Amino acid sequence: MSPRPRKKEYRNLPEYLGYDKSKGVYRLTLITGKRADMGKDRAIAIAIAREYNYQMRPESRISINSLIRASGGISGEALPFSEHADHLLQRAIKEEQPATDTLDKWNNDIERVKKYFTMPACDIELEHVNGYINEYHAEASANVQNRKIAFLSKLFSYAVDESLMFDNPATRKKKKRVEGKTRRRLTLPDFNKIHAIAEPFLRTAMDLALQTTQARLEVSRILYNIPCPKNGVCGCVWFEQPANGIYGTLFIHRQKVQHKEASHVAIPIGPELKRIIDESRDNVASPYVVHRIRDRNNKLSKEVNHPTQVAPDYLSRSFSETRDLAGVAAHLPEKERPTFHEIRALAAHLFSVQGINPQARMAHSDAKSTQIYTENHLEWIAVPHAEIKAG
After folding, report:
1. What is the pLDDT of residues 213-227, one digit of tens each?
2. What is this structure's pTM?
């Protein structure tokens, strides 16, 4: 409903300033709704009311700033943030080159961001960050909420860099406290118990993870033969003749730390690794050491490049199902039972017991490498030959 027209004698007064005839004073309605006595002097009352409205009711005044804002701002900062979101994401992708699984998460998150952040970019505050988390991730774990805040912070940092925002409100959001890991560690007897009843592809994956200390993604990507080591590839380069009991080199490019020097690891293929690789060969024509014939009705995962390659998620599920069949940690809640990833920690422990520092082999960025050599303009950390006897 439109406000009642002002009387003729009051039409020249600033908005929200009125005159109380009964007391002969001017009164200004504040933004709280209360009315303040401005005294009897008309000129002073008008001057104070205009200044108050200018500062406290900026939306009601016409000024150069308001006209610039109505035009979208100098850099587009007054346009809805949703109109900038895709461009900012593409810039983040180009500059940070995230791994495939991270990129998938970003693409999902950006759709929520565009739906929620429809206010001008320059108006986004901490309250909007809180509102976004409450809208889409209120019931999520502390880890998930922290990741969503981190994504907003990343996106907003590019917005600040392009003068679309004055500061980054996501950096002021307090992160949730994350509880320590509750999963029980995998022991060597546990490993052997699961290994004994595992399907061939899972046995191979478990053996590779134990000998290399690598995670499910890298294990699932190991190729029988590659002509030479290169970025983004895991595979074996074989010697024409064995030398000192070494048959070749297994090159691993670890995706989680792919932009760090430590992500490129060269592992000697000794007798145990060669045995695992040789025993994995069967009548399935596959370029991947870890392979299986998949069900024809199953859709091919985005994580695989060949119908016989085993997807990392399937590897994890198969391990967990086999673990439960073997009765390992059956007395614990499911979330506390060891997963495939725990093989990595077990391998690190067993190498340490042998007096071998596992950090370089695990592609940790603080590793003390024994040797670094350049191949195809990439630096590979060559770890010493070492084996774990699991049986």
Report:
1. 998 999 999 999 999
2. 0.60
Alpha carbon distance 316, 228 (integer Å): 29
Token reading at 90: 């593409």
| Mean residue pLDDT across the chain | 85
146-168: string of b/e by CB count within 10 Å (b at 16+)?
Answer: bebbebbbbbbebbeeeebbeeb
In a domain, 224, yes or no: yes
Query: What are the contacts of 181-186 at 24+ separation with CB within 8 A?
Result: 182/335, 182/336, 183/335, 183/336, 183/337, 183/338, 183/339, 183/342, 184/329, 184/332, 184/336, 184/337, 184/338, 185/338, 185/342, 185/345, 185/346, 185/349, 186/338, 186/342, 186/343, 186/345, 186/346
Residue 208 lies in a domain: yes
Secondary structure element (H or E) that encloses residue 53, with its range: helix 42-56
Distances (CA, A) of 146 to 133, 153, 170, 176: 10, 10, 11, 6
Domain count of the fold of the chain: 3
Token pair of 108, please?
């999902």
Answer yes or no: do 344 and 196 share one domain: yes
Determine the residue type at 99. Answer: A
Beta bridge partner(s), residue 267: 250
The rounded radius of gyration (Å) of the Cα atoms in the chain is 32
